Prior knowledge:
- The chain has 259 residues and is an alpha/beta fold.
- The protein has 9 helices and 7 strands; from the N terminus they run βαααααβαβαβαβββα.
- Helix 6 (126-137) links the parallel strand 2 and strand 3 (147-150).
- The model has no long low-confidence stretch (mean pLDDT 96).
- The structure holds xylulose-1,5-bisphosphate (XBP) and magnesium ion.
- Magnesium ion is lined by residues 10, 12-14, 183-184, 187.
Amino acid sequence: MQRLTTLLFDVDGTLAETEETHREAFNRAFARAGLDWNWSAEDYGQLLAVTGGKERIRHYLDTQRPDFSIPGNAQEYIAGLHAAKTEIYTQMVAAGEVGLRPGVRRLLAEARQAGLRLGIATTTTPANVTALLQHSLAADAEDWFEVIAAGGVVPEKKPAPDIYHYAMREMGVTPQECLAFEDSENGLRSALEAGVQTLVTVSQYTQGQSFAGAALVLDQLGEPEAPFHVLAGSANGHRYVNVEQLRQLHAEGEPQAAP
Ligand code: XBP
Ligand code: MG
């Protein structure tokens, strides 16, 4: 097993609990367009099975609004709705409505201090990542990551492995020297398919999903004064995720083949 050199982070649900803000932004964009669509938390929990906001709107139309006649070109119409949603979402993030999950800021600082390389591999729209990093982490936080692989930069979104392949190619690293951080089954499958060992921190919309193949499943990254809870795997006696624990975890395992 190669030495751990690189940490690859998912964004939504992993760096921050963002999906309630995404859901609100979708609903405000629908209202702004004069549509009576309103995604409840229950609806959204189902719709999140489809990654990518545009793909999610398309799926909603195909499965729940077959009667809706899309004005003009369907792809352009959906892209217009999604652009409005992204504008609303980034404004909400800029207004400070989204905070980082426990342990994220501390672990990123520790990893940088230890000389680990950082990358992002996410399905979300690049503008959303910029807004979150700048307003919830640090004004220069985008510079902390050698690559921000986001959204439509690859043909297939998660659970396809494309975004992880892209991020590792851009960084010139092998899967064996990386560790991925994810919150969802789709994200875990994407990372495992790319051959990357993965630590899962379950989020509000991914409780109860299957995380078979994860190196470790936690409720959060934890803080010294607020330890995590281990949901699957072994934390080797650690109470919060730190660089030493990550090196031990990485040394223990080859990524399990996706089930
Ligand atoms: C989560 C997603 C995204 C967001 C919405 O991405 O699937 O689609 O739900 O963002 P990840 P967009 O967990 O990979 O960060 O509307 O910009 O897609
Ligand atoms: Mg996620």
